[in-house]
Amino acid sequence: MFGNLGVHVIQFPSKRFGFVGTLPVALASIRAATTADVMGGRAYINDHGALVAPHFPVFATEAEARAFAASVAVTLSN
Q1: φ/ψ of residue 61, rounded to 5
Q2: Which of 24, 33, 60, 75 has the most CB atoms at less than 10 Å from its CB?
Q3: pTM of the entire predicted model
Q4: Looking at the domain assignment, is residue 1 inside a domain?
Q5: Mean pLDDT for the chain?
Q6: What is the pLDDT of residues 28-54, one digit of tens each?
Q7: Which residues pair with 31 in a beta bridge?
Q8: Total count of domains within the chain
Q9: Residue 69's pLDDT is what?
Q10: Which pLDDT does position 1 carry in this prediction?
Q11: Which domain holds residue 66?
Q12: For residues 53 and 72, what is the distance between their CA atoms, to the nearest angstrom?
């Protein structure tokens, strides 16, 4: 019923490339949460009591996105 689940590289309307799908935490860096993170439900309180959120990088080329995923041992679905 559901095909192609997993992590995919797409080109956003901004012409940058990034990841969509079931994103593993290995792709993210953790940063201080913004108001948008809190309102969007992405923020959480870490072990040190700080309000943080994951941040997923974007890239200028598809090759850069694929190389980054490979460098953190994430297998892409496409």
Answers
A1: -130, 160
A2: 33
A3: 0.79
A4: no
A5: 92
A6: 999 999 999 999 999 999 999 999 999
A7: 53
A8: 1
A9: 95
A10: 45
A11: 7-71
A12: 19
Spatial separation of the C-alpha atoms in residues 36 and 41, rounded to whole Å: 8
Q: Is residue 39 part of a domain?
A: yes
Q: Which of 66, 63, 64, 36 is nearest to 51 (CA)?
A: 36
Answer yes or no: is 78 within a domain: no
What tokens appear for 51 in the block?
């309000």
The residue type of 5 is L
Show the tokens assigned to 37.
């993170």
SS3 per-residue string spanning the chain: CCCCCCEEEEECCCCCEEEEECCCHHHCEEEECCHHHHHCCCCEECCCCCEEEEECCCECCHHHHHHHHHHCCCCCCC
Q: Is residue 76 part of a domain?
A: no
Distance, CA of 73 to chain centre: 14
Output the pLDDT for position 45: 97
What type of residue is 14? S
